[in-house]
Amino acid sequence: MGESGADLGNAAPLIRAELKAHVSRCVEAEGKALFPGPKSLMVRSSGARVERAMAVYGKIHQVADFVARSVSKGKAPFTHEIIEMLKAMSAVQESNALITLAVQTGDGLRVVYEGLFLSLIVPQHKHVRVLVRSVTEEGKKLRKFLKSLVNNGQAAFVESGDYDYWRISPGNVKAISSYFETLTGLAKTEEDVRGGHPRYFSGAVREAALAEFERNKKWCAGVNRPRHKVDLREDRIAFDHILPWSRGGGSSASNIQVLCEACDLQKRATASGNAA
Ligand SMILES: [Zn+2]
User: Fold this and answer.
1) Cα dihedral angle (86, 69, 203, 109), rounded to 10 degrees?
2) What is the CA(237)–ligand 1 centre distance, in A?
3) What is the mean pLDDT of each run of 10 residues along the chain (276 residues)?
4) Which residues 6+ apart lie within 8 Å of 55 measured at CB?
5) Domain presence at residue 63
6) Helix, strand or coil for residue 119?
7) Are residues 92 and 157 in the same domain?
8) One domain, residues 69 and 175
9) Residue 70's domain spans which residues?
10) Chosen domain end from 180, 207, 232
11) How far is the CA of 221 from the centre of ligand 1 (A)?
12) What predicted TM-score, i.e. pTM, was given to this entire model?
């Protein structure tokens, strides 16, 4: 394991190897099907640099747990804050079926809300950068929240455009997950559980499906022709039950696929009954 207080800048190859080993163990323990993809996490070192710890497999909270053990909390309080934020976001994803997360190479934490890209959260070495696609309704709400942080001196506005950039200081990173915790999830009813099986995919299953979808170049799994890719920055996606839940399909990793909105609507329209 990494030495307590080790500079991640020098220790990066070791951390990377340890992270891979750790995540491989998680894969063995929890099953391969759920964790098929490459992921990474931006990590604040105890020095001034930001390093990217590579994981071959892993859920967000597992990556966060590993980093928590590998990097000195005492010497890198900002790292600790990022980890806490990631864990909180992971919990949000589990409790709110409308929110799906993705952590990938060269990126930060992406937040998809109701199938639409909402925000990219990128830990940097003196602040967290939050990019918001503010043309959507949820984006406008998030922008309003970030403005309130600016008014309180907890964040700075950087740039406007199709995507607005904000900077949040280390001490206020928790505000990000706190915001997502306030968002309303799906109103689940008793009818959404059949024979003990829930209708909605768990956060971990959605997260893994989104990661696999991106790794496979974002080809839509729908039947509409010609075969097409999905632009996650512009198009809405749907997490579809391959065998519809209404026809006995479960909500496990083996029965999920990502569709573009058009193919999802098409499938719902052609299936008898509720195909969701
Ligand atoms: Zn499609």
Assistant:
1) 40
2) 9
3) 38 57 55 38 40 47 57 51 82 94 70 94 78 90 93 86 85 91 86 84 90 86 90 91 91 94 92 51
4) 19, 20, 22, 23, 38, 39, 40, 41, 63, 66
5) yes
6) strand
7) yes
8) yes
9) 59-180
10) 180
11) 6
12) 0.75
Distances from the Cα of 156 to the Cαs of 17, 23, 42, 152, 266, in angstroms? 36, 35, 21, 10, 43
Does 185 reside within a domain?
no
Q: Which residues surround ligand 1, an ion (CB under 5 A)?
A: 220, 222, 224, 260, 263
On whether residue 232 sits in a domain, the answer given is yes
- Do 114 and 146 fall within a single domain? yes
Give the distance (Å) from ligand 1 centre to CA of residue 37. 22
Cα 236 to ligand 1 centre (Å): 10
191 C-alpha to ligand 1 centroid (Å): 29
- How many angstroms is it from 115 CA to the middle of ligand 1? 13
Residue 134 in tokens: 């503010």
Q: Are residues 41 and 22 part of one domain? A: yes
Q: If you measure from the C-alpha of residue 228 to the centroid of ligand 1, how many angstroms do you get, rounded to a whole number?
A: 6
Residues 48 and 65 in one domain: no
Asked if residue 136 is part of any domain, the answer here is yes
**Strand 256-260 versus strand 237-241 pairing type:** antiparallel
**Cα-to-centroid distance, 16 and ligand 1 (Å):** 36
Q: Cα(164) to centroid of ligand 1, in Å? A: 28
The total of structural domains in the chain comes to 3
